[in-house]
Write a structure and sequence with these properties.
By secondary structure, the protein is of the alpha/beta class. The protein folds into three domains: about 325 residues, ABC transporter type 1, transmembrane domain (ABC transporter transmembrane region fold, Up-down Bundle); about 180 residues, 3-Layer(aba) Sandwich (Rossmann fold), CATH 3.40.50.300; about 70 residues, P-loop containing nucleotide triphosphate hydrolases (Rossmann fold), CATH 3.40.50. Helices cover about 65% and strands about 10% of the residues. Strands 6-7-8-3-9-10 form a six-stranded mixed sheet, with helices on both faces. It has a four-stranded antiparallel sheet with strand order 2-1-4-5, covered by helices on one side. β7, α17 and β8 form a beta-alpha-beta unit. α5 packs antiparallel against α6 and α14 packs across α16. It is elongated. The two termini are about 60 Å apart.
Amino acid sequence: MKQQPTFNEVMRLVWSQSNVFIRVRLAAALFLVLLSGVLAPLGPVALKLIVDDLTGAARVGALSIATLGVLYVLSQWLSRSIGEIRSLVYSRAERRMFRTLSERLFTHVMHLPLRFHLERQTGAVTQALENGLQGYQRIVNQLAFTFVPVLVRLGTICAILVGFGHPMFLAIFCAAAVCYGAAFHRFIRQRSGLAKEASAARIDANAAMTDGIMNYETVKLFAAEEVIGEKVSSALLTTEDRSVRFSSFAARSGLTIGTIYTFFLALSLMLSVQEVRAGAMTIGDFILVNTFMLQVMQPVEQLGRAVQGLAEGSAMLDRMLALFREQPERGDAAAARQIDERDHLRGGTLEFRNVTASYRPDRATLSNISFVLPVGRTVGVVGASGAGKSTIVRLLVRLIEPDEGLILLNSRPISALALAELRRAIAVVPQDTVLFNDTLAYNIGFGRPGSSQQEIEEAARNAHLHDFIMSLPEGYETRVGERGMKLSGGERQRVSIARAALKRPGIYIFDEATSSLDSRTEREILGNLRELARRATTLIIAHRLSAVVHADEIVVVHGGTVAERGTHEQLLAREGIYAELWSAQRSDKTAFSVRA
């Protein structure tokens, strides 16, 4: 069952992200609205005394008339300007709170395990953040700038009515408050549910649109603009329906509240007219009571709407809080405490010992895998697609954890090592290279932040990329586009190779690192990589066997298990799975050459 956000959880999140600057500004803004809450009810009192003086019902001195006039004008000015004054005081703190929450959520999401990222939708995450920030804003505004000042205003009004001897009207105001409370209590639960549905629909629609935009090339290749358009349209239609349901319910509840307000206003007006005619009230009292009716009804409405706003804010925070509940990768907390292991991780013997791993509980991707990667040696892992080769890479860098068995580095389980330092010690050239929408220099330099331009260019030369970059009008400052789509697949892969070379790790992992390159470039890059990795532990994951013929040992994975192992010559002589793959690839290459 989905866990719902509790009020305490919401408040812990809001308060935990507030630093001294935010809290001081919040306290200053709260003081101003409290001052307004006290002065606003005093304005009608001042007006009553002035009217009584002018009508002869009571006398005050000339100085007092001036003072009362200033008090009345000040209360009117504050009631209309308090929002702007609050913004001047609190807007910077509010934006800083937004920034703090955004940074925390981004950092948290980046530390979540691979399982989360395999299931998440990018658009849903960003929309959850946006909705969560709006929910936070509603909660803070309702708590700090509605609940407390309204209660102060109501308390001041009640004290004034008691002081001036109008218990009947105090009873009317209390009855109105009870009716308002009953109405809001009836509406709030349903409104909260509708708000949550509308918020979820907006997140899903944004996720559908983002998914379509990110995969626009696939959409165009299959002429599927209408298909993806219908999917987005359906999501937007759901958003529209749920938003309209929420708005319609809000309008109906507003009509009910307006009817209650009108009834008690009419009752107060009728009784006060009778009291004035009977001589029990002055004209000033008439003005005071009816002005208070306006002032009381408005705060009570604000309280009801504040409760609804809190419910809606909590609903909007629901998805963001769900993200915060996701547990980060194991080992991140230890990274800061184990920096002394950096040198230890620069190189070493890697060992898989009876490792079993799966993405789903009903099917193991790898089963009882065992092999050793000696320090300074090169081991190739080959097999058909879906054999589990890339899972080995994810296990090594701990993107996933094994279900059984151990992975050891220099006889120590990598699960006991600092996660950040383990990954810094390993350079991975993945099968599918995705680049940042930035410059070529940035994408290469990402391998080791702080690298000089000379080091970046040297890494590019090692990947046979420098000449290509220098042929571009903007050279290393050329932007590669979203996910690197301005480059070809081979160019993106060479950027990835340059990035790995710049990292200067103790352990290299090449996961189909040359699959997008032509044979000549592949041979050149493999030669450079062999030189780079000469003193490092190197693991090559490959489908094309030409990438591993030079390896000290080749491990053949078939059906998630180790089927064969040995050198290239030994495996060919065995005439097993490896030999069949070699023969098939040689035949395919020969057939392609003949057709060409």
